[in-house]
Design a protein that fits this description.
This protein has a two-stranded antiparallel ribbon. It has a two-stranded antiparallel sheet with strand order 2-3. The radius of gyration is 33 Å and the shape is elongated. It is built from 9 helices and 4 strands. The protein is mainly alpha-helical.
Length: 304
């Protein structure tokens, strides 16, 4: 910035000059300068206002005509409010995705049962293709963190998982009567709603019990595979279905608490999903609900 030394100014004197941003700058006249000389003054990155008579006075962005950029919350209260806002948005997004997944899955199941039963019975390979797509989608979501967090790859994987599970449910539904299907869907929705309310209100931290729930699920899978080989009666199916309902109900409570967090801000849960893991969280809860539906159908379904 160019500055002309005004008349009456002596070397060493400090004068005030208006900066390009509209603020005031303190300029000291050089020792060899005379009135009328042109001086080149470097303009600072941040325009500051300094009063010559009070050189220690600190300028503010408002004094310099600058605009202050928004800053991150500094106080604990502001930080807590900011995190609560992020968590609320994460919960809404996750449950919105889950709702769409369930509508598409059960809708596709009903369409297959109503219009494609003959085709599926003569083309059973459709079930195995859907199973392969489902496993591939789960691997992409659960084993590849970048994929689960990157748009639109995460939505593409969720779409493939949803459609594949819808086809698989449609094939399974062909073995049961229409009334049993409607009853199982209604019971699943009622149980999920009740477990969600419980998980949101209870002070018990189920996120710290994930290891025990996974161990119980592993034992159940072994029983589900090997027990029917030796015992294949209705009572065995009923008992396995009841145990499965209990285990997947625990998973729903566990994943729900990982999503929504603790109802008491002073006592947070031990673990929780990151707000960037909405696809991962939705896929977890979605599979919990689908598996619970399978178990309820196993217990109460009337086979054709």
């Amino acid at each position: 910035m160019e500055f002309i030394v005004p008349a009456g100014c002596s070397p060493g004197m400090t004068v005030q000059v208006q900066s390009p941003s509209g603020g005031l700058m303190a300029v000291q006249i050089p020792e060899n300068a005379k009135p009328g000389d042109k001086l080149q003054i470097p303009v600072p990155v941040e325009a500051v206002a300094v009063v010559a008579a009070h050189p220690t006075m600190t300028a503010t962005p408002e004094m310099a005509g600058a605009t202050q950029a928004p800053t991150a919350p500094s106080s604990p209260i502001e930080q807590a409010s900011f995190e609560e806002l992020l968590r609320t948005g994460f919960v809404r997004k996750t449950y919105g995705i889950l709702l769409v997944q369930l509508i598409v899955t059960f809708g596709l199941m009903m369409i297959i049962k109503a219009f494609f039963s003959d085709f599926i019975r003569t083309h059973i390979w459709v079930y195995y293709v859907a199973m392969a797509v489902s496993f591939a989608s789960m691997i992409a979501i659960f084993c590849c963190q970048d994929t689960a967090r990157t748009f639109p790859r995460n939505y593409l994987c969720l779409a493939c998982l949803t459609l594949a599970q819808g086809v698989m449910l449609g094939v399974v539904s062909l073995m049961y009567k229409q009334e049993s299907i409607f009853f199982a869907v209604a019971m699943t929705m009622i149980v999920v709603a009740g477990l969600t309310v419980y998980a949101a209100k209870t002070k018990t931290d189920f996120t710290a019990q994930g290891g025990y729930i996974c161990a119980a699920a592993l034992v159940f899978i072994c029983l589900l595979i090997f027990v029917p080989i030796f015992y294949n009666g209705g009572i065995v199916r009923l008992l396995l279905g009841a145990v499965g309902c209990l285990i997947f109900s625990l998973f729903i409570v566990y994943d729900t608490q990982l999503i929504i967090g603790s109802p008491d801000a002073k006592k947070p849960h031990k673990y929780s999903f990151s707000v960037d893991d909405y696809a991962f969280a939705a896929a977890n809860l979605y599979l919990d609900v689908i598996n619970l539906f399978y178990m309820i159908l196993m217990v109460s379904g009337d086979r054709e």
